[in-house]
Here is the input.
Amino acid sequence: AHPYEQVAFSNLGAVPTGLVLGAFPDERPGDDPAVRSSKRLSSLDVFLRLGPRNSAAVHAPAEHVAVLTDIYRALDIERSFASATAEESRPFPQTSELVIQRRPWGLLNATVKVYGRDLLAKLRAITSELYSRAIFSVTVDLPMTCGAVVALVPQLEKLGYSFSGVVPHALGQDSLRLQKTAVTPEPIELHVEGNLGKQILEHVLSDRARVLAGSL
Here is the structure.
């Protein structure tokens, strides 16, 4: 989002919850130069809580707990981070359920509704659309109410996914958002307002660097 838009959202009480890198590439195949997007290469996710406060236990990899805690605090949403139990690690059904959304500007989002044993294979297939079909960034939303998210994240990191943010109350529950992008904006091109926004930006970039270094 443009810095002015970020300030406007902040004045309304909206809180930054994540950053999607490369969501709006400057040049796309077939674009009319007259309507080509600006260099606003990434998008800042924001969330405005309208309902009452609620509390819940969620799961997340340890390396993301600190930034998630600060996001939840800013949202005034009470969350505790739980460890996976034997019940939550029980065998999953064979078939997972996903909601797929393809945006015309080159962003594909996959939201997991139900974890299943075929989930990783489905996500591999979705990832293969990157660099093709004019898809430049892929985001995956993983429900945080189940401990499976902690085990699944390292497997997705092997496919090149890294931290993007959190989606509160996505499909009735919070989701951890991971991302993979074919467009790498320079940090100097990313303008984020506010201390929390800058913290999210720093974490997104450092986690992407960690994942890329691990895949070499």
In short: The CA atoms of residues 192 and 198 lie 6 Å apart. The two ends are 32 Å apart (CA to CA). The longest helix spans residues 195-214.
